[in-house]
Amino acid sequence: MKEWLTIRNNFEAFDVRTLKGNFLQAIVLKAKQIPRGNGLLIIQNFEPIPLYTTMKNLGFDIFTEKDDENNYYCYFYRENEIEREDKELPLKPIVMPRYADIDPQLADLTVNFWDHIWNKDNPALELKYKLLISLANAVGLGRIRQATREIIKAYYLGISVEQMEELFALFVWNQGIGHFSSEIAQSSLFKAFLLIKNLERKGKNRDEIMIVLNEKFGEKNPEMGFNN
Questions:
Q1: How many C-beta atoms lie closer than 10 Å to residue 94's C-beta?
Q2: How far apart are CA 31 and CA 14, in angstroms?
Q3: For a surface tag, which of 96, 186, 209, 223 has the fewest beta carbons within 10 Å of its beta carbon?
Q4: 87, pLDDT greater than 70
Q5: Secondary structure of 136-175 as H, E, C letters
Q6: Tens digits of residue pLDDT in 179-188
Q7: 11 within 8 A of 39, measured Cβ to Cβ
Q8: What does the pLDDT read at residue 84?
Q9: How many whole angstroms separate alpha carbon 84 and alpha carbon 59?
Q10: Is 0.90 topped by the overall pTM?
Q11: Structural domains of the chain, ranges and CATH numbers in brackets
């Protein structure tokens, strides 16, 4: 039993069950204002697993319980006032509440499936290569928005421009010059690749480039369709 649970009833409650859109940044902003020795309660109708790493990187310990109506009460206690967002994979999944709009149990199943695929302990495939495989699959299925997110995350984890070049050459080989010219070369995916390549040529480091990528292709850009 965590000692701090004795004061959990004093935590500020943030009920996100009825909120729409991307409210992750609102949670993070509120969490940063919580002083050491205090906490925050997040109430959701599915377990908000993608939030756990974010809160841990801000110095929070976590305890979650579920009631008889399948509502999750996630208590976050701030043990340390630290911020390690630079250690966290960008572009977290924000679509999970949409599944809860259909069926909270579906959202619960989906978020646990996501956790098993992307947060698996001791995975056989290194995450950056798993992202490249996911990227290639997304391109094959015409899901360019997903592919754009995957290339940004893979770059964050250390994929080089030279590796990206070989990947795009494979797209030309497997899908044909015509398809590449009319679809991929005009896409946000290829624009992200060219942005990385050009900024590296100008001497920008990976952290500087990630800031630009997040601005142009992240949730804050309404053109990417994440604020609907």
A1: 16
A2: 10
A3: 223
A4: no
A5: HHHHHCCCHHHHHHHHHHHHHCCCCHHHHHHHHHHHHHHH
A6: 999 999 999 9
A7: yes
A8: 60
A9: 8
A10: no
A11: 1-122 (3.30.110.40), 124-218 (no CATH)
